[in-house]
Amino acid sequence: MPERAASKPAPAPGRSKRGAKAKAVLDRKSSPGWLTSDEDEISLRRWRGRTEGIEVVALEPQLGFFGAFRARSASGGQYEVEIRSLEERINSCGCIDHRVNALGTCKHIEGVLAAVSEDKARAFQAAAEEGSARVEIFLDRRDAAIPSVGWPADSAAAAVAREWLAPWLLDDDVLNPDPDSVAALLAAFPEAPPEVAAAMRVSRHFGPWLARARASVRVKRRAPHSRPMSPPAAQRSTC
Question: Which of 34-43, 60-69, 78-87, 228-237 has the lowest mean pLDDT?
Fold first, then answer.
């Protein structure tokens, strides 16, 4: 019998310990500089993803390598991972580390990549070269988080989505990063025509970024003559 995706436990009344920890990581001031390089940090997450016994379950098995996955660590934490590239660090995870580390990866993403590539070297390499067949709307977190669109090699799929996406695109088919525009796209996508929905994936991990981005815009509008707020510096976190 196929495994059912595990449901998350209901949160306890008030702020949970995990929620409090996540907020502390996001809000604390970063220390001046890192003791390790980005390459070191990426290698560490890759090693942890391969060695910490992360359980991986495909939530969209019909999509092969480029689907959504549940990654559950030995400590019991579980997160949804979206794989859209097997070569670039533009995949997504719901964990706090991925949200704040500005690396574009985390141990859960690396654990999924290790699991799906095991004993499938040829198929994995072929899929890496071909890329995702869908138009991908996501947050690129390799530095400051940037709302982005990834276009597939299949021009037919791209054409179907491009016409519908036009109100939210800038010149050169770049996604408009304005938080209100992104919010409008997220609200409209559930009502998109079936052919558009089939050709495109909108990431489920926009929520925290959108809340902070819109709050920042409100602050700037209330104080138009104040100095603009600098984006928060990258932080290292483990989970």
Answer: 228-237
The string over 187-202, giving b where at least 16 C-beta atoms fall within 10 Å of a residue's C-beta and e elsewhere, is eebeebeeebeebbbb
CA 214 to chain centre: 18
> Other CB atoms closer than 10 Å to residue 98's CB: what's the count?
26
69 and 112 Cβ atoms separated by less than 8 Å? yes
Nearest Cα to Cα of residue 205 among 132, 115, 157, 136: 136
Cα 17–chain centre separation: 23
Contact 147, 182 (CB under 8 A): yes
Q: Which residues contact 113 (CB under 8 A, 6 or more apart)?
A: 49, 83, 86, 91
Cβ–Cβ < 8 Å for 109, 129: no
| Sequence-ordered strand ranges (E) for the chain | 55-58, 68-72, 78-82, 92-93, 135-140, 146-150, 200-202
How do residues 169-179 score in pLDDT, each as one tens digit?
998 899 999 99
User: Which residue has better confidence, 47 or 33?
Assistant: 47
Domain ranges of the chain: 15-131, 133-226
Residue 56 CA to its chain's centroid (Å): 17
